[in-house]
Amino acid sequence: MGASYQPLDPHNHHKPSSKNPPCFVSKPVCALLACGFVSLALLHLLCCSPAGAQRPAFSPLLQYINNTYYSVSSVPGGDEGCNYSEGRWVWSPGYARRYNATECNVKESHDCLRNGRPDTGYLDWRWQPAGGCPLPAFDAGAFLSAVRGKHVAFIGDSMARNQAQSLVCLLGAAFPSRLVYRDADQRKHNFWRYAFPAHGVTVSFYWNPFIVKAMGKSEDESVRENHVHLDTPGDGWGADADTIDVAVLGASHWLLNGAIYYNGSEVIGAHNAPAELNYTGVGYAWPLKMAYRTAVERLSSSRPRTVVLATFSPAHFEGRPSDSPTACTKMEPYEEGEKELDWICRELRDIVYDEAEAARARSAGGGATTRVEVLDVTKLAAMRPDGHPSVYMHRDPFAHGVPERMYSDCLHFCLPGPVDTFNEILLQILRRKRR
Ligand SMILES: *[C@@H]1O[C@H](CO)[C@@H](O)[C@H](O)[C@H]1NC(C)=O
Ligand SMILES: *[C@@H]1O[C@H](CO)[C@@H](O)[C@H](O)[C@H]1NC(C)=O
Ligand SMILES: *[C@@H]1O[C@H](CO)[C@@H](O)[C@H](O)[C@H]1NC(C)=O
Ligand SMILES: *[C@@H]1O[C@H](CO)[C@@H](O)[C@H](O)[C@H]1NC(C)=O
Ligand SMILES: *[C@@H]1O[C@H](CO)[C@@H](O)[C@H](O)[C@H]1NC(C)=O
């Protein structure tokens, strides 16, 4: 099982053959690591160096949006009965080449093409939902029409930001946009808003990795602990809550890492806090539920609103150290059956479904007309180990040779990349009739 590093080269883009399949850490260990415990530096460099048929290399130059072929209009109003959460990635050359990320101001560490990632096969896949349901390609006009005059807010962690930036790029490639505001520190992408004046739409991102109010590490990386107030909406979005028409909430990763949790001024427990503090362990599941509950309640009102709860999108360090240049160098999606979702992924996903169900039950009979939906991306994201920036989170990482240690991003997705599919599904959710 070779673990030698092969620089990513478009002419060396091997397709794993069935004779010599990619090797994995045993399924349970692998999945466990994918779901948050990435700091466990076990199983160093158990990596794949598959041999097999070459796939033709595609030009790394972007070809811009091709709406004519995969047009959303072939499925008027979306398909009410479709469940997009199960399915598989099918090869579809150039499908994900939708925009130039440099022009829509994404975080530089997600702009893989700019950073020189030479293999572009990760842009050649389309999500095919199970049961033959069609998932139309993203249609910016359809999206903006579905949210005409509305404020769409993404609230959550850096995966929520990844999706928010994808949406701005997808919309901005087809319609004029205007930056309304952004963080004073231009290197940050924590609070920003774009306007799409032709449709009166605004899209905002609020960095609230616990959704609810948090102090400590999430505000200042030099601080060790997170102090999280489960009963209070996060500062930024909490203040703007009455202006939000469509909220997309996404958090999990920071809850897995842990925090000290409060209700009012009282500590009610902690997860991964130093033992000497002697707090009651509350795990990550219960605080995640409470955070979503607080947010959904704040966003409930008598005017029509939509709250979309996004499920967990796992990382793919697969047990390798995150400072290894080969932490995630797989160049193809997993095939069906190649990797299973482990229990943490499933648990985190189920929490979201449960909270959505509980919110609907609470509002039934009351005056609230907030619609709560689930954006289930766990499976489709888990199948895409190839879609992360890896070492291409910096420009030309191998300009000075291949260093022994180099941090890899195996969590966020390249833009353009698999995260654009999250917005394809979001569009179908927004087009669906209110229940
Ligand atoms: C993307 O846009 C930037 C800035 O306009 C430009 O320098 C770059 O060449 C473009 N990249 C591609 C692949 O077209
Ligand atoms: C759009 O995509 C389809 C399918 O890949 C292709 O046949 C067609 O030529 C493309 N059109 C343009 C304008 O690129
Ligand atoms: C969609 O499929 C997922 C996974 O099989 C399941 O958990 C979920 O309940 C389904 N959603 C609906 C609305 O049926
Ligand atoms: C916080 O305290 C209030 C009042 O005692 C209680 O109703 C609420 O359920 C508590 N919330 C949490 C998250 O424990
Ligand atoms: C930790 O908390 C437990 C339960 O409240 C208590 O019995 C114990 O004395 C505490 N230990 C310390 C060192 O404070």
Automatic annotation (TrEMBL):
Q: Where in the cell is it found?
A: Golgi apparatus membrane
Broad class of the protein's primary localization = Golgi
Asked whether the UniProt record includes Protein biosynthesis among its keywords, one would answer: no
Domain (Trichome birefringence-like N-terminal) spans 81-131
Ranges in coiled-coil conformation: none
Could you tell me which Pfam families the record lists for this protein?
Answer: PC-Esterase, PMR5N
For this protein, the record's InterPro entries field holds: TBL (IPR029962), TBL_C (IPR026057), TBL_N (IPR025846)
MF terms (GO), sorted A to Z: xylan O-acetyltransferase activity
Q: Where is this region: Disordered?
A: 1-20
Topology of the protein relative to the lipid bilayer = Single-pass type II membrane protein
Cleaved signal peptide residues: none
Record's keyword annotation contains Lyase: no
Show the GO cellular component annotation of the record: Golgi membrane
Please list the residue ranges annotated as the Trichome birefringence-like C-terminal domain: 135-428
Q: Which UniProt keywords apply?
A: Golgi apparatus, Membrane, Signal-anchor, Transferase, Transmembrane, Transmembrane helix
The similarity annotation says: Belongs to the PC-esterase family. TBL subfamily.
Official protein name in the record: Uncharacterized protein
Q: What is the lineage of its organism?
A: Eukaryota, Viridiplantae, Streptophyta, Embryophyta, Tracheophyta
